[in-house]
Amino acid sequence: MIRVLIADDHVLLAESLQFMLQQDCSMEVVGIAVDGKKALQMCEEFKPEVVLLDIKMLNNYDGLEAAGKIKRFWPQIKVIILTTVEERENVVAAVLKGVDGYILKDVTPGELALAIKCSVAGFCVLNGTVRDILREAIANLAQSGGKIKGIFKPEEIKIIELIADGRNNREIAEIMNYSEGTIKNKVSRMLEAIGAKDRTQLVLYAFKNSII
């Protein structure tokens, strides 16, 4: 019996997913967590074999942060991202955090059940769209001489460079012809992609990985 934990803040969807999975006699859903913090608590309590984790959750830890913590505290647990989010930076960030799969929510019930079983067997599971995104990121990595540049777009790297120069959001917005709010949102997405807490950690990450 494969013990599965579902972490998704859309309760109706999570309960539907629970019902669907439990039609397979080889699976048992041990619980539903509505945010990343609760997912960690339930991993400690129930010791699931697989966690299905959405990236975008409103409260406490988001999916990426929770994924990193789960793999650090319980490396034996298989973490599969199950989400509608297919941006390159999120896919790459999830892989860097050690997840065991990344699947979009348009997957069929049979495909999801197979993905769970494959992850337990030791395989990394990716659907077609995600596989293409990751392949492109790896190609970018190879072209950059092994530097982890594929996680950020060129304009995002420019923003990091300006932050490293001591520029604030207003100054960066003026230089790049964006609104200050747009720059703030872009910085927030970059922080989320690598699990950084603030702009300083973002710049340090960029230096450490030869992005700038």
Automatic annotation (TrEMBL):
Keywords: DNA-binding, Kinase, Phosphoprotein, Transcription, Transcription regulation, Transferase. InterPro entries: CheY-like_superfamily (IPR011006), NreC/VraR/RcsB-like_REC (IPR058245), Sig_transdc_resp-reg_C-effctor (IPR016032), Sig_transdc_resp-reg_receiver (IPR001789), Tscrpt_reg_LuxR_C (IPR000792), WalR-like (IPR039420). Residues 3-120 form the Response regulatory domain. Residues 145-210 form the HTH luxR-type domain. It comes from the Bacteria. One of its GO terms (biological process) is regulation of DNA-templated transcription. CDD domains: LuxR_C_like (cd06170), REC_NarL-like (cd17535). GO terms for molecular function: DNA binding; kinase activity. The modification 4-aspartylphosphate is found at D54. May play the central regulatory role in sporulation. It may be an element of the effector pathway responsible for the activation of sporulation genes in response to nutritional stress. Spo0A may act in concert with spo0H (a sigma factor) to control the expression of some genes that are critical to the sporulation process. This is Stage 0 sporulation protein A homolog. It comes from Desulforamulus hydrothermalis Lam5 = DSM 18033. The lineage of its organism: Bacteria, Bacillati, Bacillota, Clostridia, Eubacteriales.
